[in-house]
Write a structure and sequence with these properties.
Elements: E1 7-16, E2 32-40, E3 43-49, E4 66-68, E5 70-75, H1 93-107, H2 110-127, E6 129-137, H3 142-157, E7 162-168, H4 177-189, E8 194-198, H5 204-218, E9 222-226, H6 236-246, E10 253-257, H7 266-278, E11 282-285, H8 287-293, H9 311-316, E12 321-323, H10 340-351, H11 366-371, E13 389-391, H12 397-400, E14 409-412, E15 415-416
Parallel strand pairs: 5-6, 6-7, 8-9, 9-10, 10-11, 11-12
Antiparallel strand pairs: 1-2, 2-3, 4-13, 13-14, 14-15
The structure holds uracil.
Length: 432
């Protein structure tokens, strides 16, 4: 590709309608239109329908797809890549919880957490991600170790990846009111989000009230894990929506997983979704991790459901929905590399993000950016905004989603980045 200091063009690229504020070319039934993009001083200078005269086109991309950079709104960078020293013994959720707990106590010094977080961020950046939210295991004493590391990493990565952090603890940890108040202050001081894993305990509403009250006191957004189970009686999402209404909460709320919803009777599900929509709650599904963990059987039988939540029904109600990476190479998910193209490829297959494709591509671009409260430049291609783009080999959804696109090019502020991903052996010294 020819680039010049002051500017260059990308001619005849395919842009999806869902990435543009005002599509001006004609778009095909898959949502793609052919455009010429000009990049000037690191920003998008113009986006116009592709010129009819191909011979005049400089940097002819011959219809290759260009997307914005990705936003990954639900990750666990602090757990990443511990698999070699702490695999999940049986692939179950309980196996994951116990293994991570043991590993945390044994190994999660500041240096250990920092090295693995850095590794994960390098992967995400190389794959084309521009913003990441990570959960941080925050039960004492890990809160005092991981939050300062997170703050240092956020500063180190500023300008490359916008990093957000949310505290993570089982909701029963909130019963210790004094300790939880200290944690909320720590999260507020670090500019993080308040979060917890919500599940069905008898005092769920009282504990949610404490979390909402702390969020209001400190002006914090909320980020929950909820109902990550196939148990039909798991209804924490509904309780979160009701708590938001009780507190007239006007910050952002993002809820992850919500797997049990897919197992409940239709009438009940739709009432829950109406309550979620009424409170402007965003939902993120973690298709790869939940395919791995949910309906995991230890009796040699085959899983019978996909583990994901009801994204189609949610989107139909106007709920802001996203998909994200979740865990990477830790006991909650044995695989993954923080590659949002892989997440979208898998989500397309698992959640049927096709026939029609419609607005589903927004689930890894504008929708997670909105859930994270990021400005409108994230997840969109717009004149005047930074030229943060990914140029693929694929020219259609079937080409884009059939191969790993290992040769994609990532452009940040108008310049190609070095896409080298870190080698696994860089972490070997931590795995002994
Ligand atoms: O790390 C975690 C914690 C809870 N649930 C997950 O899927 N991952």
């Amino acid at each position: 590709m020819v680039t010049r200091n002051f500017g260059f063009s990308l001619s005849r690229v395919r842009l999806h309608a869902s990435w543009l504020a005002a599509p001006s070319a004609s778009h095909d039934t898959d949502g793609f239109g052919l455009y010429d993009i000009e990049i000037v001083d690191g920003r998008i200078g113009s986006i116009v329908p592709a010129a009819a005269d191909v011979r005049r086109a400089e940097n002819d991309m011959a219809g290759r797809i260009v997307s914005p950079c990705f936003t990954d709104c639900h990750t666990h960078l602090d757990k990443g890549h511990i698999w070699p020293r702490r695999p999940n013994p049986d692939g179950t959720f309980m196996g994951a919880l116990e293994s991570v707990g043991e590993d945390r106590v044994a190994h999660w010094s500041a240096g250990d957490v920092e090295a693995r977080m850095e590794f994960g961020l390098r992967c995400a950046y190389a794959h084309g991600t521009r913003a990441v939210r990570t959960h941080l295991d925050s039960i004492s004493p890990q809160d005092a170790i991981s939050w300062p590391v997170f703050e240092a990493m956020r500063e180190r990565w500023a300008g490359r990846i916008e990093l957000q952090g949310a505290c993570l603890l089982g909701i029963e940890g909130v019963r210790d009111a004094d300790w939880f108040a200290t944690l909320a202050s720590r999260v507020a001081a670090a500019g993080g989000m308040l979060g917890a894993v919500a599940y069905m305990v008898p005092d769920l509403d009282a504990l949610l009230d404490r979390i909402f009250a702390a969020a209001i006191e400190h002006g914090l957004d909320l980020d929950f894990h909820a109902d990550e189970t196939g148990d039909v009686d798991a209804r924490a999402l509904r309780h979160i929506a009701d708590a938001a209404a009780r507190h007239r909460f006007d910050g952002q709320i993002l809820v992850g997983h919500c797997c049990s919803l897919a197992r409940q009777p239709d009438a009940e599900v739709l009432a829950t979704l109406d309550a979620v929509a009424a409170q402007n709650i965003s939902v993120v599904s973690l298709p790869m991790c939940n395919l791995y963990l949910q309906d995991r059987r230890t009796d040699g039988t085959t899983p019978r459901w996909r583990g994901v939540t009801l994204l189609h029904e949610m989107a139909a109600r106007g709920i802001n929905v996203a998909v994200a990476s979740d865990n990477t190479r830790d006991p909650f998910y044995a695989y993954g590399d923080l590659d949002m193209l892989e997440v979208y490829r898998m989500a397309t297959r698992i959640c049927h993000f096709d026939h029609p494709v419609g607005d589903w591509p927004k689930t890894v671009f504008a929708n997670p950016a909105a859930a994270m409260g990021l400005d409108a430049a994230h997840g969109r291609i717009a004149v005047g905004e930074p030229a943060d783009l990914i140029l693929y080999e694929g020219r259609s959804w079937t080409e884009l989603l059939s191969r790993p696109e290992a040769n994609r090019m990532v452009i940040r502020n108008g310049a190609l980045i070095d896409r080298t991903i870190p080698a696994y052996d860089e972490l070997d010294h931590l795995m002994e």
